[in-house]
Design goal:
Length: 157
């Protein structure tokens, strides 16, 4: 995994080789470990040990108001639970004062999330509650959900 921070806040967390890797990097980065990165490493150690870490390291959400709204909604999905793209679309429309929003648009924002795991895009599932795409790879998404003891539907009801 690769971590990036900007002005003391986490601006990126990617699996090596994932889609949109480094999307928030501008090209003049310096390899340096600051307090936000040290905090995130401790948070991730606890998370991967199966614990529920307290709070989050400071985050620097980027992108349009829409993308930031989607990120804020994902941040409210509790560990061990999921939310569908449609549910996020309905909540984003409400928050942005729109009559409705496309689940596909939400899918684009979720898929381009530059702060994996901390902004839990792995907890977003398809309309039927089934596993759907993940920029880090479906195997990783399944592993993260398994770590959180989330069991997804395997057949249509």
């Amino acid at each position: 995994m690769v971590l990036a921070s900007t002005d003391g806040r986490i601006s990126g967390l990617w699996f090596l080789g994932q889609k949109y890797f480094g999307s928030t990097l501008v090209g003049n980065e310096v390899e340096k470990e600051d307090d936000a990165i040290r905090q995130t490493k401790r948070w991730l150690d606890r998370y991967f040990a199966g614990e529920t870490p307290d709070g989050l390291p400071p985050l620097r959400l980027s992108g349009s108001a829409f993308k930031q709204t989607v990120a804020q909604i994902m941040l409210r999905i509790p560990r061990g639970q999921t939310m569908t793209y449609g549910e996020i679309a309905a909540e984003a429309a409400r928050l942005l004062g729109m009559p409705r929003m496309s689940a596909q648009a939400v899918g684009g924002a979720v898929g381009h999330n530059p702060i994996s795991i901390l902004v839990p895009c792995h907890r977003v599932v398809g309309a039927s509650g089934k596993l759907t795409g993940y920029a880090g790879g479906l195997e990783r998404k399944q592993a993260l959900l398994t770590l959180e003891k989330i069991v997804l539907k395997t057949t249509e009801s």
